[in-house]
Amino acid sequence: MELLIALCLVGIFFGVYCHFLxxxxxxxxxxxxxxxxxxxxxxxxxxxxxxxxxLAVALQGGYMIGLTSREMVPPxxx
Length: 78
What we know:
Blueprint: H1 2-17, H2 23-41, H3 45-68
Helix pairs in contact: 1-3, 2-3
């Protein structure tokens, strides 16, 4: 549960400050990390795929929330 919340927050951050192309590497990195941990803990392929799908949906859902709330966040200063 904490991982889902963390990935939603990461998605919100990248939705506010980055463009659409950041979703592909983030999703691939999440899937790679999830499959490494699943192999470490001995999960089945079905459990691994379900976990990857759940985490990818949480990440992209957070991105959409951040994308729609972009107007409420002041622009960052460099």
